[in-house]
Amino acid sequence: xxxxxxxxxxxxxxxxxxxxxxxxxxxxxxxxxxxxxxxxxxxxxxxxxxxxxxxxxxxxxxxxxxxxxxxxxxxxxxxxxxxxxxxxxxxxxxxxxxxxxxxxxxxxxxxxxxxxxxxxxxxxxxxxxxxxxxxxxxxxxxxxxxxxxxxxxxxxxxxxxxxxxxxxxxxxxxxxxxxxxxxxxxxxxxxxxxxxxxxxxxxxxxxxxxxxxxxxxxxxxxxxxxxxxxxxxxxxxxxxxxxxx
Length: 245
Description:
- The protein is an alpha/beta fold.
- It has helices at residues 2-16, 34-38, 62-67, 73-77, 93-103, 111-124, 141-147, 151-163, 186-193, 220-231, and strands spanning 85-90, 133-136, 166-167, 172-174, 197-199, 209-216, 237-244.
- It has ten helices and seven strands.
- A five-stranded parallel beta sheet has the order 1-7-6-2-3. It has a two-stranded antiparallel sheet with strand order 4-5.
- Helix 9 crosses helix 10 (220-231).
């Protein structure tokens, strides 16, 4: 009865306020239209086999490209704690606008459509397929109270519903609100986040974990989360994001 009434209520809301794309405002039942999704700038290979960032073709040998073992200088100099990270596209254009709509305009209804993009990355990237448990990157409690939600949790929850993967929001907490990362080098970002996270659960699973976030830049946040989890006994940690900045 309650489910029927909820569906009726949602139908009436859609009738009065038809769903539109959060980017272009065209009618769209999933709040992100096909045209805007198709216009999102994809990351083009070759990609770093560890952090997933795009690399200049001139800097990569044909043997490396064929073997799929391309690694960027940053990952060679300081290997990340995660096994591999992949993102859908560049933090630009419609993808950036859609993320901003979720994150800053609080248009939560677009989360399932963005999670569908993450599911596409999972399907296209064999390196991520061992992952069995989704772990959203946590916000510091003070920041989450100020924002009112954690966008990574919304994305991970929708991704779990779409893929059937287990969701664990209780594994990791952020215990230190680090200073803003803008303007910091990759090494400074790592140091800024060191010891910022803590494993909260006592039943840390042995199955491969997949960290979920909206945007990754140097991979420092994913690295520190993965390092914390692995030090606590996690066997392997992967990472996925919507965009690489």
